[in-house]
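Re: the 442-residue chain
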Amino acid sequence: MSSEVAAADCLFLGIDIGTSGVRGSLIGDEREELFSYQIDLEAPKIKGARTEQNPLIWKQATFKVIKALQQKLQNCSDEKTIAALAIDGTSGTVLVCDQTGTPLANALMYNDQSCLEEAAQIAEIAPADCAAHGASSSLAKAMFLLKHHPEASHLCHQADWVAATLTGKYGISDENNCLKLGYNSLEETWPNWLNELDIGNRTLPRVLKPGSLIANINPKAASELGLTESCQIIAGTTDSIAAFIATGANKIGDAVTSLGSTLVLKIIADKPVFAPEFGIYSHRLGEHWLAGGASNSGGCVLKKYFNQQQLDAMTPLLKAEQKTGLDYYPLPSTGERFPRNDANLAPKLEPRPDDDVSFFQAILEGIANIEAEGYQQLSKLGAPAPQRVFTAGGGSKNSAWRQIRQTTLNTPVIIAGQTEASYGSALLARQGYMKTIEENAT
Protein backbone atom coordinates (compact mmCIF):
# COMPACT_ATOMS: atom_id res chain seq x y z
CA MET A 1 0.00 0.00 0.00
CA SER A 2 1.43 3.42 -0.94
CA SER A 3 1.78 6.11 1.70
CA GLU A 4 -0.60 8.36 -0.23
CA VAL A 5 -3.33 5.72 -0.18
CA ALA A 6 -2.65 5.00 3.49
CA ALA A 7 -3.07 8.70 4.28
CA ALA A 8 -6.36 9.09 2.40
CA ASP A 9 -8.49 8.42 5.49
CA CYS A 10 -6.18 10.18 7.91
CA LEU A 11 -5.95 13.63 9.45
CA PHE A 12 -2.86 15.33 10.84
CA LEU A 13 -2.67 17.72 13.76
CA GLY A 14 -0.17 20.48 14.44
CA ILE A 15 0.03 22.30 17.77
CA ASP A 16 1.79 25.65 18.15
CA ILE A 17 2.59 26.75 21.69
CA GLY A 18 3.20 30.49 21.53
CA THR A 19 3.78 33.19 24.08
CA SER A 20 0.15 34.24 24.40
CA GLY A 21 -1.77 31.17 23.27
CA VAL A 22 -1.92 27.63 21.92
CA ARG A 23 -3.24 27.03 18.39
CA GLY A 24 -4.09 23.78 16.67
CA SER A 25 -4.43 23.09 12.94
CA LEU A 26 -6.07 19.95 11.60
CA ILE A 27 -5.24 19.12 7.99
CA GLY A 28 -6.31 16.44 5.54
CA ASP A 29 -4.30 14.19 3.26
CA GLU A 30 -4.18 16.94 0.60
CA ARG A 31 -2.62 19.36 3.12
CA GLU A 32 -5.81 21.43 3.32
CA GLU A 33 -6.58 22.97 6.69
CA LEU A 34 -9.95 21.62 7.83
CA PHE A 35 -10.22 23.13 11.29
CA SER A 36 -8.26 25.33 13.63
CA TYR A 37 -8.76 26.28 17.23
CA GLN A 38 -6.93 28.62 19.57
CA ILE A 39 -7.08 29.48 23.26
CA ASP A 40 -5.21 32.13 25.21
CA LEU A 41 -2.49 31.46 27.75
CA GLU A 42 -1.89 33.27 31.00
CA ALA A 43 0.94 35.76 30.45
CA PRO A 44 4.43 34.78 31.67
CA LYS A 45 5.59 36.25 34.97
CA ILE A 46 8.19 38.98 34.50
CA LYS A 47 10.45 40.23 37.24
CA GLY A 48 13.46 42.19 36.06
CA ALA A 49 15.39 40.08 33.57
CA ARG A 50 13.56 36.92 34.66
CA THR A 51 10.61 35.68 32.57
CA GLU A 52 9.01 32.40 33.61
CA GLN A 53 5.83 30.39 33.15
CA ASN A 54 4.21 27.35 34.74
CA PRO A 55 4.57 24.47 32.21
CA LEU A 56 1.35 22.85 33.41
CA ILE A 57 -0.68 25.54 31.65
CA TRP A 58 0.85 24.45 28.31
CA LYS A 59 -0.38 20.91 28.84
CA GLN A 60 -3.83 22.04 29.95
CA ALA A 61 -4.19 24.36 26.96
CA THR A 62 -2.90 21.76 24.50
CA PHE A 63 -5.34 19.16 25.77
CA LYS A 64 -8.22 21.66 25.52
CA VAL A 65 -7.28 22.49 21.91
CA ILE A 66 -7.12 18.80 20.94
CA LYS A 67 -10.49 18.10 22.57
CA ALA A 68 -12.06 21.11 20.84
CA LEU A 69 -10.81 19.95 17.44
CA GLN A 70 -12.04 16.43 18.16
CA GLN A 71 -15.47 17.93 18.89
CA LYS A 72 -15.42 19.78 15.57
CA LEU A 73 -14.70 16.48 13.84
CA GLN A 74 -17.60 14.76 15.57
CA ASN A 75 -19.97 17.59 14.73
CA CYS A 76 -19.29 17.19 11.03
CA SER A 77 -19.71 13.41 11.23
CA ASP A 78 -16.29 12.87 9.69
CA GLU A 79 -15.16 9.31 10.23
CA LYS A 80 -11.51 10.12 9.58
CA THR A 81 -9.11 9.86 12.51
CA ILE A 82 -6.06 11.83 13.60
CA ALA A 83 -3.14 9.65 12.55
CA ALA A 84 -0.24 11.83 13.71
CA LEU A 85 0.48 14.91 15.77
CA ALA A 86 3.48 17.26 16.00
CA ILE A 87 4.17 20.17 18.34
CA ASP A 88 6.26 23.31 17.99
CA GLY A 89 7.19 25.72 20.77
CA THR A 90 9.07 28.92 21.44
CA SER A 91 12.79 28.55 20.81
CA GLY A 92 14.88 28.67 23.98
CA THR A 93 12.11 28.01 26.50
CA VAL A 94 13.52 25.46 28.96
CA LEU A 95 12.45 23.49 32.05
CA VAL A 96 13.72 20.62 34.20
CA CYS A 97 11.60 17.75 35.48
CA ASP A 98 11.88 14.54 37.47
CA GLN A 99 11.78 11.01 36.10
CA THR A 100 7.99 11.06 35.81
CA GLY A 101 7.99 14.36 33.91
CA THR A 102 6.81 16.52 36.81
CA PRO A 103 8.33 20.02 36.47
CA LEU A 104 10.66 20.96 39.34
CA ALA A 105 10.25 24.70 38.77
CA ASN A 106 8.69 27.18 36.40
CA ALA A 107 10.11 27.17 32.88
CA LEU A 108 12.50 29.95 31.89
CA MET A 109 11.03 31.55 28.78
CA TYR A 110 12.67 32.23 25.43
CA ASN A 111 13.17 35.93 26.24
CA ASP A 112 14.54 35.40 29.76
CA GLN A 113 17.83 37.31 30.11
CA SER A 114 18.62 36.55 33.73
CA CYS A 115 21.34 33.89 33.38
CA LEU A 116 24.30 36.24 32.95
CA GLU A 117 26.75 34.26 35.06
CA GLU A 118 26.07 31.11 33.06
CA ALA A 119 26.38 33.01 29.77
CA ALA A 120 29.82 34.24 30.84
CA GLN A 121 30.93 30.65 31.52
CA ILE A 122 29.67 29.58 28.11
CA ALA A 123 31.53 32.45 26.43
CA GLU A 124 34.83 31.14 27.82
CA ILE A 125 34.35 27.63 26.43
CA ALA A 126 31.92 27.46 23.49
CA PRO A 127 33.15 28.00 19.89
CA ALA A 128 32.40 31.46 18.51
CA ASP A 129 30.01 30.13 15.88
CA CYS A 130 27.90 28.19 18.39
CA ALA A 131 24.27 29.26 18.87
CA ALA A 132 24.43 28.62 22.63
CA HIS A 133 25.98 32.00 23.45
CA GLY A 134 24.08 34.66 25.37
CA ALA A 135 21.90 34.84 28.47
CA SER A 136 18.78 33.95 26.44
CA SER A 137 20.23 30.68 25.13
CA SER A 138 18.78 27.33 26.19
CA LEU A 139 22.19 26.34 27.53
CA ALA A 140 22.50 29.29 29.92
CA LYS A 141 19.02 28.61 31.30
CA ALA A 142 19.70 24.87 31.55
CA MET A 143 22.85 25.49 33.58
CA PHE A 144 20.94 27.77 35.95
CA LEU A 145 18.07 25.34 36.42
CA LEU A 146 20.34 22.31 36.94
CA LYS A 147 22.43 24.24 39.45
CA HIS A 148 19.30 24.87 41.52
CA HIS A 149 17.75 21.46 40.85
CA PRO A 150 20.59 18.92 40.67
CA GLU A 151 18.05 16.14 41.28
CA ALA A 152 16.53 16.73 37.81
CA SER A 153 16.26 13.70 35.54
CA HIS A 154 15.34 15.49 32.32
CA LEU A 155 16.04 18.78 30.63
CA CYS A 156 13.23 19.72 28.23
CA HIS A 157 12.30 22.40 25.77
CA GLN A 158 8.71 23.55 25.64
CA ALA A 159 7.72 21.39 22.63
CA ASP A 160 9.61 18.35 24.01
CA TRP A 161 7.86 18.38 27.35
CA VAL A 162 4.33 18.77 25.98
CA ALA A 163 4.96 15.98 23.45
CA ALA A 164 6.24 13.79 26.28
CA THR A 165 3.00 14.31 28.24
CA LEU A 166 1.36 12.46 25.33
CA THR A 167 3.88 9.62 25.06
CA GLY A 168 5.27 9.31 28.60
CA LYS A 169 8.76 9.33 27.04
CA TYR A 170 10.72 12.24 28.48
CA GLY A 171 14.27 13.12 27.44
CA ILE A 172 13.64 13.31 23.67
CA SER A 173 14.02 16.51 21.64
CA ASP A 174 14.59 17.69 18.07
CA GLU A 175 17.71 19.18 16.54
CA ASN A 176 16.13 22.59 15.85
CA ASN A 177 15.21 23.17 19.49
CA CYS A 178 18.58 21.81 20.62
CA LEU A 179 20.68 24.24 18.57
CA LYS A 180 20.68 26.86 21.36
CA LEU A 181 21.49 24.12 23.86
CA GLY A 182 24.83 23.57 22.12
CA TYR A 183 23.92 20.67 19.84
CA ASN A 184 26.20 20.37 16.81
CA SER A 185 23.73 19.89 13.96
CA LEU A 186 26.56 19.59 11.42
CA GLU A 187 28.12 16.62 13.21
CA GLU A 188 24.73 15.52 14.61
CA THR A 189 26.10 15.07 18.11
CA TRP A 190 26.53 16.76 21.47
CA PRO A 191 29.98 18.43 21.45
CA ASN A 192 32.70 17.45 23.92
CA TRP A 193 33.13 21.00 25.22
CA LEU A 194 29.79 20.66 27.04
CA ASN A 195 31.60 18.34 29.47
CA GLU A 196 33.48 21.38 30.80
CA LEU A 197 30.22 22.97 31.93
CA ASP A 198 28.13 21.95 34.91
CA ILE A 199 25.22 20.58 32.92
CA GLY A 200 25.38 16.83 33.42
CA ASN A 201 25.21 14.70 30.29
CA ARG A 202 22.59 12.47 31.87
CA THR A 203 20.01 15.24 31.45
CA LEU A 204 20.76 16.04 27.80
CA PRO A 205 17.94 14.80 25.56
CA ARG A 206 18.18 12.27 22.77
CA VAL A 207 17.97 14.29 19.57
CA LEU A 208 15.72 13.42 16.62
CA LYS A 209 15.21 15.10 13.28
CA PRO A 210 11.99 17.10 13.04
CA GLY A 211 9.37 14.89 11.43
CA SER A 212 10.71 11.69 13.00
CA LEU A 213 8.51 9.31 14.97
CA ILE A 214 8.87 9.63 18.75
CA ALA A 215 6.28 7.02 19.74
CA ASN A 216 2.58 6.29 19.63
CA ILE A 217 0.44 8.16 22.10
CA ASN A 218 0.15 6.41 25.46
CA PRO A 219 -3.19 4.75 26.29
CA LYS A 220 -4.06 7.12 29.12
CA ALA A 221 -3.64 10.27 27.01
CA ALA A 222 -5.40 8.63 24.06
CA SER A 223 -8.41 7.83 26.23
CA GLU A 224 -8.57 11.31 27.74
CA LEU A 225 -8.31 13.04 24.34
CA GLY A 226 -10.43 10.66 22.31
CA LEU A 227 -7.53 9.70 20.05
CA THR A 228 -6.75 6.22 18.82
CA GLU A 229 -3.81 4.45 20.45
CA SER A 230 -2.22 4.19 17.01
CA CYS A 231 -1.88 8.02 16.80
CA GLN A 232 1.78 8.83 16.22
CA ILE A 233 3.54 11.63 18.10
CA ILE A 234 6.08 13.15 15.72
CA ALA A 235 9.15 15.20 16.66
CA GLY A 236 8.40 18.88 16.18
CA THR A 237 10.48 22.03 15.86
CA THR A 238 10.64 25.68 16.93
CA ASP A 239 7.77 28.08 16.27
CA SER A 240 9.68 30.15 13.70
CA ILE A 241 10.74 27.12 11.67
CA ALA A 242 7.21 25.70 11.77
CA ALA A 243 5.97 29.03 10.41
CA PHE A 244 8.59 28.83 7.64
CA ILE A 245 7.45 25.31 6.71
CA ALA A 246 3.84 26.55 6.62
CA THR A 247 4.55 28.95 3.75
CA GLY A 248 5.32 26.13 1.32
CA ALA A 249 8.97 27.08 0.85
CA ASN A 250 10.70 23.75 0.33
CA LYS A 251 13.65 23.89 -2.05
CA ILE A 252 17.07 25.51 -2.29
CA GLY A 253 16.72 29.21 -3.02
CA ASP A 254 13.23 29.47 -1.51
CA ALA A 255 13.18 32.35 0.95
CA VAL A 256 10.69 33.77 3.43
CA THR A 257 10.57 37.40 4.50
CA SER A 258 8.53 38.14 7.59
CA LEU A 259 7.30 41.74 7.57
CA GLY A 260 6.39 42.23 11.19
CA SER A 261 7.67 44.66 13.79
CA THR A 262 11.13 43.64 12.64
CA LEU A 263 12.37 42.32 9.29
CA VAL A 264 13.27 38.62 9.40
CA LEU A 265 14.81 36.81 6.42
CA LYS A 266 15.25 33.05 6.01
CA ILE A 267 16.45 31.04 3.02
CA ILE A 268 16.92 27.34 2.24
CA ALA A 269 20.56 26.54 1.47
CA ASP A 270 22.53 23.46 0.46
CA LYS A 271 25.08 24.07 3.21
CA PRO A 272 24.99 25.73 6.63
CA VAL A 273 25.86 29.38 7.16
CA PHE A 274 27.21 30.53 10.52
CA ALA A 275 28.02 34.19 11.15
CA PRO A 276 27.39 34.98 14.83
CA GLU A 277 28.50 38.58 14.33
CA PHE A 278 25.32 39.02 12.26
CA GLY A 279 23.19 36.77 14.44
CA ILE A 280 23.13 34.13 11.69
CA TYR A 281 22.92 30.42 12.49
CA SER A 282 21.67 27.51 10.43
CA HIS A 283 19.09 24.88 11.26
CA ARG A 284 18.96 21.58 9.46
CA LEU A 285 15.73 21.36 7.48
CA GLY A 286 15.27 17.93 5.97
CA GLU A 287 18.14 17.40 3.56
CA HIS A 288 18.91 21.12 3.42
CA TRP A 289 19.71 24.00 5.77
CA LEU A 290 17.80 27.08 6.83
CA ALA A 291 19.85 30.23 7.26
CA GLY A 292 18.57 33.65 8.19
CA GLY A 293 19.00 36.95 9.91
CA ALA A 294 16.90 39.70 11.48
CA SER A 295 17.15 43.45 10.97
CA ASN A 296 15.98 45.97 13.54
CA SER A 297 14.10 47.69 10.73
CA GLY A 298 10.49 46.84 9.99
CA GLY A 299 6.97 47.82 10.91
CA CYS A 300 8.11 49.27 14.23
CA VAL A 301 9.57 52.21 12.29
CA LEU A 302 6.25 52.91 10.56
CA LYS A 303 4.37 52.78 13.88
CA LYS A 304 6.79 55.37 15.26
CA TYR A 305 5.48 57.96 12.80
CA PHE A 306 1.96 56.84 11.90
CA ASN A 307 -0.96 55.07 13.52
CA GLN A 308 -2.75 52.21 11.78
CA GLN A 309 -5.60 54.42 10.60
CA GLN A 310 -3.15 56.76 8.86
CA LEU A 311 -1.29 53.85 7.27
CA ASP A 312 -4.54 52.36 5.96
CA ALA A 313 -5.58 55.72 4.48
CA MET A 314 -2.24 56.33 2.76
CA THR A 315 -1.68 52.83 1.35
CA PRO A 316 -4.01 53.28 -1.70
CA LEU A 317 -2.17 56.51 -2.53
CA LEU A 318 1.26 54.88 -2.88
CA LYS A 319 2.86 55.00 -6.32
CA ALA A 320 5.09 51.96 -6.37
CA GLU A 321 6.16 52.58 -9.97
CA GLN A 322 7.48 56.06 -9.10
CA LYS A 323 10.42 55.83 -6.69
CA THR A 324 10.92 58.70 -4.28
CA GLY A 325 14.70 58.66 -4.75
CA LEU A 326 15.23 59.01 -1.00
CA ASP A 327 17.93 56.68 0.28
CA TYR A 328 16.60 55.84 3.74
CA TYR A 329 17.87 53.27 6.24
CA PRO A 330 14.83 53.09 8.52
CA LEU A 331 15.64 52.04 12.09
CA PRO A 332 13.61 52.62 15.26
CA SER A 333 16.77 53.73 17.10
CA THR A 334 20.55 53.59 16.82
CA GLY A 335 22.06 50.17 16.24
CA GLU A 336 21.83 47.36 13.70
CA ARG A 337 23.08 43.76 13.54
CA PHE A 338 21.95 42.46 10.17
CA PRO A 339 22.61 42.99 7.31
CA ARG A 340 25.08 45.50 8.80
CA ASN A 341 26.75 44.76 12.11
CA ASP A 342 27.06 48.25 13.55
CA ALA A 343 25.91 49.10 17.07
CA ASN A 344 26.38 52.79 16.24
CA LEU A 345 24.46 52.84 12.96
CA ALA A 346 22.01 55.72 13.18
CA PRO A 347 18.60 55.77 11.47
CA LYS A 348 18.56 57.59 8.15
CA LEU A 349 15.14 59.14 7.61
CA GLU A 350 15.97 62.53 6.17
CA PRO A 351 15.25 64.64 4.26
CA ARG A 352 11.59 64.28 5.07
CA PRO A 353 9.22 65.17 2.21
CA ASP A 354 6.46 67.70 2.79
CA ASP A 355 3.69 65.14 2.26
CA ASP A 356 3.22 62.09 4.49
CA VAL A 357 2.48 59.70 1.62
CA SER A 358 5.93 60.27 0.09
CA PHE A 359 7.54 59.85 3.51
CA PHE A 360 5.60 56.62 4.03
CA GLN A 361 6.68 55.30 0.63
CA ALA A 362 10.30 56.27 1.21
CA ILE A 363 10.32 54.24 4.44
CA LEU A 364 8.87 51.23 2.58
CA GLU A 365 11.54 51.61 -0.11
CA GLY A 366 14.21 51.79 2.59
CA ILE A 367 13.00 48.59 4.23
CA ALA A 368 12.93 46.91 0.78
CA ASN A 369 16.55 47.98 0.25
CA ILE A 370 17.50 46.45 3.61
CA GLU A 371 15.73 43.24 2.60
CA ALA A 372 17.71 43.12 -0.65
CA GLU A 373 20.95 43.89 1.18
CA GLY A 374 20.11 41.14 3.67
CA TYR A 375 19.78 38.48 1.00
CA GLN A 376 22.98 39.78 -0.63
CA GLN A 377 24.76 39.44 2.72
CA LEU A 378 23.50 35.89 3.13
CA SER A 379 24.75 35.10 -0.38
CA LYS A 380 28.19 36.51 0.43
CA LEU A 381 28.32 34.20 3.45
CA GLY A 382 27.53 31.12 1.38
CA ALA A 383 23.75 30.97 1.00
CA PRO A 384 22.15 30.91 -2.46
CA ALA A 385 20.52 33.94 -4.03
CA PRO A 386 16.76 33.86 -3.54
CA GLN A 387 14.85 32.32 -6.44
CA ARG A 388 11.45 33.23 -4.99
CA VAL A 389 10.48 35.03 -1.81
CA PHE A 390 7.41 34.09 0.20
CA THR A 391 6.03 36.89 2.32
CA ALA A 392 4.55 36.53 5.79
CA GLY A 393 3.55 39.00 8.50
CA GLY A 394 1.21 41.97 8.56
CA GLY A 395 3.12 43.87 5.88
CA SER A 396 2.44 41.12 3.33
CA LYS A 397 -1.06 42.56 2.78
CA ASN A 398 0.29 45.81 1.27
CA SER A 399 0.24 45.24 -2.51
CA ALA A 400 2.18 48.43 -3.29
CA TRP A 401 4.94 47.41 -0.89
CA ARG A 402 5.01 43.99 -2.53
CA GLN A 403 5.53 45.67 -5.91
CA ILE A 404 8.30 47.87 -4.49
CA ARG A 405 10.01 44.82 -3.00
CA GLN A 406 9.68 42.72 -6.13
CA THR A 407 11.32 45.47 -8.20
CA THR A 408 14.08 45.96 -5.63
CA LEU A 409 14.78 42.25 -5.18
CA ASN A 410 14.35 41.44 -8.89
CA THR A 411 12.82 38.19 -7.67
CA PRO A 412 9.23 36.89 -7.66
CA VAL A 413 7.52 37.82 -4.38
CA ILE A 414 4.70 35.51 -3.34
CA ILE A 415 2.16 36.11 -0.60
CA ALA A 416 2.25 32.94 1.49
CA GLY A 417 -1.10 31.17 1.62
CA GLN A 418 -0.32 29.85 5.09
CA THR A 419 1.93 31.30 7.76
CA GLU A 420 0.61 29.77 10.99
CA ALA A 421 3.18 27.70 12.85
CA SER A 422 0.46 25.20 13.81
CA TYR A 423 -0.13 24.50 10.12
CA GLY A 424 3.61 23.95 9.61
CA SER A 425 3.63 21.47 12.50
CA ALA A 426 0.65 19.67 10.95
CA LEU A 427 2.71 19.29 7.76
CA LEU A 428 5.52 17.82 9.87
CA ALA A 429 3.05 15.36 11.40
CA ARG A 430 1.94 14.33 7.91
CA GLN A 431 5.56 13.99 6.76
CA GLY A 432 6.41 11.81 9.74
CA TYR A 433 3.40 9.58 9.22
CA MET A 434 4.23 9.12 5.52
CA LYS A 435 7.80 8.22 6.42
CA THR A 436 6.78 5.50 8.87
CA ILE A 437 4.30 4.04 6.36
CA GLU A 438 7.01 3.90 3.70
CA GLU A 439 9.51 2.34 6.11
CA ASN A 440 6.99 -0.29 7.19
CA ALA A 441 6.21 -1.09 3.56
CA THR A 442 9.87 -1.94 2.90
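The chain is about 30% helix and 20% strand.
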